[in-house]
Input
Amino acid sequence: MQNIEELRDKIFLLLGKHLIHFQTVEMRLKSLLKLNRTITFENESSPLVIEPSVKNQTLGGLTTKALNSIFVSGTEEENKVIDETTNTLRIDMNISFNLCEHRHQELNFQLQEFVADRNFLAHQFQEKFNLSKLDECQQAINYLLELEKKHKPFLDQFEQYCVSAQEGVDTQISYLKSNLFKTHFIFPAEEIYKEIQILIDDNNKNGGWISLTTIGILISKKFPDANKKIKTEYGFKNLNDLILNSGLFLLKIEPTSKGEKILIQLNYGEATFKRIEN
Output
């Protein structure tokens, strides 16, 4: 039969494991919330990174924030980190999990229970269990073991959310380092793009759609080095490759008597990254 000191040691060991779990979830919630950041570029100064303030948030407060901005249900409005009217070049990085209503309610319940269990251990555990009594020490151990079983499914699922979020961030970072990002944010300021824009805007035929071949001929006449510049600075083989594969242009195929032709328009949509979670 174990003596009371051995039972207490086991209690303290189990309490330590729970403390690590609580702190891990708290730190990861902070990390997830800080992923939703805005990077602004003003003049030629260093980029300004604006993140949500989470430093002094408690586990309960972090949980509420996460359920409103990270783990969302349906088409809830995003929380804007900075004013929409700010007149600067900006990149909004957003990580969120769009959950079905049932899963969102389930996660809400799990998080609230997790916070309640943490508060109980921190503030009421020794009121509930008298650790100077052998039988109550054993009851405390049983309670902590059951609590560990209860939390395991939630902790495993939460770990998967964190892994998925990191994969999403890695995707965004890869994009920011890519020629595609450079194309999206710098090429529209180039004379070549502006000329294409003029040609499209001035085209009143076919609902505003213009032939890719026509664009290629006109741009080559005005900018003989266009293909070389595009290959050197943006990594595309030539202008046609950029138009077809950069996402800056909408594409449409139209049948002709000789086969088909590609028509283009400007694409004013935003570049986004989505990870679909069931």
Remarks:
- Confidence is low (pLDDT under 50) at residues 271-278.
- The CA atoms of residues 172 and 273 lie 7 Å apart.
- The chain has two domains: 4-177, 183-266.
- The beta strands are 37-41, 48-50, 71-73, 89-93, 97-99, 210-211, 249-256, 259-266.
